[in-house]
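seq as requested:
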Amino acid sequence: MRTNTMRRTRLALVLGLAAAALVLSSCAGVLSVIEDRLPPPREVEGGFVFNYYAPSARQVTLAGSFNNWGGTQGGGRYDPAIDPMSDPDGDGVWSIVVPLPPGRYQYKFVLDGGVAWERDPNNPDTDYEGGIENSLIVVPASIEYEAELVTGTVVGARETKEATEEPKKAPAPEGAVEVPVTLDMPDAGAVYIAGSFNAWSPDADAMTMNDDGLWAITLALEPGQYEYKFVVDGTWMEDPANPEFISDPYGGKNSVLTVE
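struct tokens:
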């Protein structure tokens, strides 16, 4: 009798452990489904929502061509205060809504202060900047929210500026040379030039479309060598018409302009 009771007890224990294992497996499956079914960035009220599943992360931020890659563009340092994501219910899904203007943007999710930079596993669209593959989002002109011209900053918190605001121009230095720069990008909506001559500001020097269909600007520069890139609809790119370049700190290229 005692032997039968012990057998039933062991059987109940085995069945209980199996049931617990099944529950844990089911929970893991549910979490996997949650991760797999997260939608790619999409328009919601107030902007585009980005989601990323990282249950073990202590902090996640969104970095991209729209915010100077979290402050790192142009030799700056990563700033975790730029576009932090939140997980208020603790389910491991981090989210942020960003009011992006129409354009093409590359982005990644940054975990725990820069320990890892990850592409969006739920977005199949990618593009390259400086030889590095990033996730890609295209914001259409038909957005229904009020967009902001999001520029970020090289060092410090994110900044915004009205698209109609005229940038303040410093007086040209004595001995400066007028240097015309052009870019053949007729489909672009907005083009800026950023470089070592303007502290890599992504919105200080706006270019304008001329009668030839080229984006153009005339810079007043002292003799010397300068590194630069174009910011086309929020995406940083080197000058395709300039064969002179130097490697940047991120595996890409900065175009080089020599003023004599």
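The helical segments are 2-36, 68-71.
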